[in-house]
Design goal:
Number of strands: 7
CATH class: Mainly Beta
Radius of gyration: 24 Å
Helix content: 25-40%
Largest sheet: 4 strands, antiparallel
Structural class: alpha+beta
CATH superfamily: Immunoglobulins
CATH topology: Immunoglobulin-like
Oligomer: single chain
Strand content: 25-35%
Length: about 140
Amino acid sequence: MSWGTKIFMLYGGFVALIAFLVVSSMRQNVDLVAEDYYQQELQYQNRIDQTDAAIKSGFSPAIVVNDSQVNIVFPDTVRSLGISGEVVFYRPDNKALDYAEQITLDNSGKMSIARSKFSAGMYQTKVMWKSAGQDYYYESTIHIK
């Protein structure tokens, strides 16, 4: 085999590798973090203030994952004031797996969601609620197995 043939084969292999990488990258599913990310960025300071308010007042909920349910438990002090809001389970790798539900507490101050509504993987839990005229926000990461 001559040098010219070897150089041509090396160059052809390189071109084939680059073409393969381009085609495989174009087939990759890329979801935006959020469709309205610019609006969310403008309101980011409000989220920081709401998170600080939840932490300083001790109103942050506990998020517990067990074999059959995902439980969100609010402290007694918050329950007595009344709560309205929403819980969003955000899946960073696939927005089709996101899940949102309005906050509805049982008599013990717990909100239970069946684990069957979730796929295995990591979720960012975003709890947004209003209590006694004050807005609060809490964010946590959970892993569903």
